[in-house]
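Quick start: read one record
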Amino acid sequence: MVKDINTGGSSQPDLFTVVGSTLFFSAYDQTNGRELWKSDGSESGTTMVTDVGGSDSFVWSGSSTAGQEGMVALGNSVLFVASEMLADGTLSSYSQLWISDGTESGTSLVQDFNPFHSDHPKYMVEIGTSVYFSIDDPVHGRELWVTDGTASGTEMLSDLSTGGTGADPTNMVGMGGSVFFFADLTNYGRELCHDQSVITSITYSY
């Protein structure tokens, strides 16, 4: 055993993601709840990165809390999803996209896409220096977005289903520098799609 993270009970580690020589994962302990951890494979080198959000206000949105949303490497950092712990001790349904380089000061919210409502980032996939994912915002619904880990470098690729209903892109996978996915297209129904580049148009594959 590398480390007894939750003495007297299971830490339920999951979402293992390797960045260089560091393993990132989520784990539970009775003091902090489910948070982001990292390990170099030694007991002393296995530590909680930070109490995301500060003062126990956030917990990791893992498989034992609000549903396994995922974690993905991006350069020397990881992107992950976290949800707020409310004052009454219940987990908020609001989930947001965060980034961490493995330090407390280097862990931050990427962007609040949908203030006071849950963004629910899903289906994250790394391609080159970007991560593609789906997210829900109040104007477009759930659409395909891309990020380089910064707020200014985060944008929606295309409004595939106009009118605010969202195209609900799923099953993202990278191939040949492009992202392939399924989406509900206006006038076409659910089809296989891929992007031509990071910020250009979407091509429909039939």
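The first strand starts at residue 14 and ends at 19.
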